[in-house]
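Fold Annotation — chain and its backbone
Next Lines — sequence and tokenised fold

***
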Amino acid sequence: MTPSTSGTARRITNGSVELAVFEEGNPDGETIVLVHGWPDTHDLWNRVVPFLTERFRVVSYDSRGAGRSTVPTRVEDYRLPALAGDLFAVIDAVSPGRPVHVLAHDWGSVEAWEAVCEPGARARIASFTSVSGPNLDHLGKWMRRRISDRSFGGPLAQAVASGYTVLFQIPGLATLPLRLWFSRHWPAFLKFFDRLDPALVRPAPTLADDMVNGLKLYRANIRTSLLRPRERHTDVPVQLILNKNDKAVRPVGYEDTEKWAPDLRRREVDAGHWSPISHAEDIAQLAAEFVLDVEDRRWADLPDGPSESASA
């Protein structure tokens, strides 16, 4: 199947930030909002979208600091509450009065975790499928628990996998390597790092800027969340898609997630970190199945909802 091209474009504001938002698919279907991570744009989902558009209304957007959206200059403008606010602004604009389903990857998933743990989130988010992006507070709580139990293997594995984030914390240190090498050789790097076919990688023209601007995500959130993790709970149905070969986010870090997200489903994909590129059909299928299951349950819970046979 050929990669998707962006559909109808619009701009949605959240305070001083303008977000570039793209819509395609079935206007009468359930709305799925796709949220990308670092250093991607909404184009991350180009291989996933064609598997969803026949049945669903698909909305994607460039996160702040990426692609065609506003690029704030202050580190504090990239804190998770602001990013969750962007997601809610998109939801309120594209689907006022009806909750949407969210599919997110990497930092997009971290942002979506922040949103689904906000009070009243279930009125705006019907379900959340998370790919390779933890709730940072949950991760911090899990690491503390494992260390307290003198069970160091899992935290050590994740610390090794996340070692690059230490470099990202130091202003200016990663800027030149990202601009001068990684942005120019990104498909080759993903082949080395993720065993990803470079022919599948279509870097955005803004990749070099997106890489550098996105470093503020790490500086604004990592240390605070891991050193002083909050109690963050959600009643939104959550699906974890665990990439078994993910070198950046180790699946072991999710072993306590049911404590904070009791309505939880786990699925595994034999993929690396960038599974929306390498295993697009699998990601789309798992997300679609979860959306339909959640919608069936939602209708069944309504006093005057359709019968099971009618909603199938």
User: Anything to note?
Assistant: The longest strand covers residues 17-25. The chain is about 40% helix and 15% strand. The longest helix spans residues 280-301. Residues 1-5, 306-312 have pLDDT under 50 and may be disordered.
